[in-house]
Amino acid sequence: MATLAGTRTPTATLPALGVRYDWVVIGAAAWMAAGMYWDGSAHISGLPDSFWTIWHAAFYSGFAASALAVLAPVVMARPRVASWRAAIPAGYGYAVAGVFVFGIGGVFDMLWHTIFGIEFSTDALLSPTHLMLGTGAALIVSGPFVAATHRAGRHDLAGQLPAVISLGFILGTFTFFTMYAGPYSGVLGQGPKPGDTVLVRTMLGVYLFSALIVGVALVGLARGVLPFGALTVILGLNGVATILMRGHAPLEVQLAFSLVAIAAGAIGDVLVWRLRPSIDRTLALRVFAFALPFAYWALYLGVVVLRLGSGWTIHELTGIVVVSGIVGLLVSFVFTSGSRSPMTPRSL
C-alpha cells in the first residue's frame, strides 16, 4: 500500500532557485522601486498628496507584485517540507520577512496619514511608518543578492547581474531615505563661498554618502558578488535614478552628473580589478576604500567647478574630497575588525 513516507523533506531545505527566479524578483522589485521614486518626485514637486494617489498605487502595486514573487514559491513548496521555514528558497529568508514588515508598515502608514496628515519635505523621509516601509523594501530587494551567495555559478557580470542589481537597489533604498544629504540633495559646491551651516550640512552628506558606497562595495566583495562592471551598474543606477527623481536641474546638468556616477563606478571597477582587495591584501583593501569615494567626489566637484562655477575656496573643495576618502578608509577598518579570513562568499 502506498504511504506518505518520502513525500516530505523533514529536515533539509529545498534546493536554491535559479537565476531565472532572481530575475522575476528583480522585475517586481523594479516596479516597486519605480513607484517609490515616483512618490518621491511627487513630494519634491509639491503635488497635492494623500494616501490615495496614483504614485502610491504604483508603489503598493509594485509591493504586491514583489510579495507574490517572493511568497509564491514558499506556498508551493510547503506541502513537500516539514515547516514553513524549510519551504523558503535558499537566500530568501530576509525577503520573506521584508514582505511582512512592509505589509504591516503599509497599514500603519495609512493610519498615520489619517491621524497626522501627509508629510512634506524631509518629514516624509523621517516618518516612522515610511522608515518601516523602507526597511521592508530593502529586505525584499536583498533576495537575489543573498541567494547568489548560496549557489555556485558564473562569476562574471552577466552571471551575477541579478545580484548586482539587487545590491544596487539596497543602496538606492538607503540613499532615497537620506536624500536630504549627499551629492544629490542639491548641487554641492556651487555658488558663492558657503556659510558655516551650508558647509556643515555638506560635510555631513559627504560622510554619509561615502560610508554608504564603500560599505555596499565591501559587502559585495565579501560575498563574492562584485564582478568587473558591478560598481558601474550599482553607482550608475543609483545616481541616474536619484537625479531623474529630483528633476529640478536643466537636462545638460542632469546628464553631466549622471555621467559622474557612471564614471565613478567604472573607476571603482578598475580599482577592484587592479588592486584585488581582500582581507588577505589589507593594503589593497584600504587603498580601494579610500580611492572609491575620493574619485566620486573629485569627479563631482570637478564638474561643479568647470561647468557651473564655484566660489568655494580651494581648501573647502579639496578638503571635501580628502575627507570622503578618510571616511571610506575608516569604514574598511570597521569592516575587517576581528576577521583574518579571506573575503569569500558566506551564508547570511
Give a structural overview.
The chain has 348 residues and is an all-alpha fold. The chain folds into two domains: 15-158; 178-338, no CATH class. It has 13 helices and no strands. The chain has helices at 19-45, 54-77, 84-87, 93-116, 123-126, 128-141, 143-148, 157-176, 196-222, 230-246, 251-275, 282-308, 314-336. Helix 9 runs parallel beside helix 13 (314-336). It is globular and about 65 Å long. The model is unreliable at 1-13 and 341-348 (pLDDT under 50).
Summarize the structure.
By secondary structure, the chain is an all-alpha fold. Helices cover 70% and strands 0% of the residues. It contains 13 helices and no strands.
Structural class: mainly alpha
The count of helical stretches stands at 13
User: First CA to last CA: what distance?
Assistant: 43 Å
Helix-strand sequence? HHHHHHHHHHHHH
What percent of residues are in strands? Answer: under 5%
Measured as a percent range, the helix fraction is 55-70%
Please tally the β strands and state the result.
0
Q: Report mean pLDDT, rounded to a whole number.
A: 87
- Tell me about the largest β-sheet: none
What coarse outline follows from CA principal-axis ratios? globular
Specify Rg, calculated over alpha carbons: 22 Å
As for the number of domains, it is 2
Give unreliable regions as ranges: 1-13, 341-348
